[in-house]
Amino acid sequence: MKVGFIGLGAMGRGMAGALLKAGHTVSGFDLNPAALAWLEDNGGARAAGPAQACDGADAAVLMVVNAQQAEAVLFGDDGAVEGLPGGALVLSSVTMPAEAAQSLGARISEAGLNYLDAPVSGGTVGADGGTLTFMAAGNDAAWNAAQPLLTAMGQNIYRFGDHPGPGSTMKMVHQLAAGCNLAVAAEVMSFGAHLGLDPAKVLEVLNVSAGGSWMIANRGPRMLTEGRDASSAVDIFVKDLGIVLDAARASRFPVPVSAAALQVFLGASGAGFGKHDDSQATRFYERLGAKKVRSDQ
Known about the structure:
By secondary structure, this protein is α/β, with parallel strands linked by helices. About 55% of the residues lie in helices and about 10% in strands.
């Protein structure tokens, strides 16, 4: 398939690479020139904007930060919709509220295109390896058209409905689990270090014990570093747990653990580490006077 890929960050880069490895033709756009250079070096083509990236494409894949960016790259000046032919697919892997996915899907349908609400999980490792989990929702035309792309980029592919929205709902529920687990990981590592334990040894024990988790195993080693190279930034969980709390408020459902976890990420972001790797949620505790988890190297 001919694919226009918008958003070549830490996740998008791996996803575009998986499409190229599967034999798809990829033209991409990102505001970062280094990302465009990477795409060219790996067999893709750089575009000057979303419309050019999607010119004549069978599908557009979106991997931008939020719903506002998705709407801008689709319908703004030089938007992707200008380049897509009628009947083409828009596959959005953007984490957004379900209501935003529904609204975006309606606009895309009005433009004569098919929309699949398909956020992902699996991190950069999953993106690079083509083993992501997709949480998809959309009509049969969108679902069927997306199969060659989903199977190239993902290993665990789920469909939650025949209209946009439920995919984003599932991703929100997932982010509740991920954010709370990461906040606990930051707290346990910080608490251990504050009590005088070697953080590396704390991590080693947790990884072979009942108190361990995927988040501790994955983010723990990065907590021992400065975390300047972000594969997923602290501010991502400020956004995503904010989506959780907004949905909980609207549905009158209590989420006290999520509310507490959000404070950890807000604290780290407010301390100036919003763009750092999300493992640096530990900085929240450090700024409160806890001993450092990270080394001085």
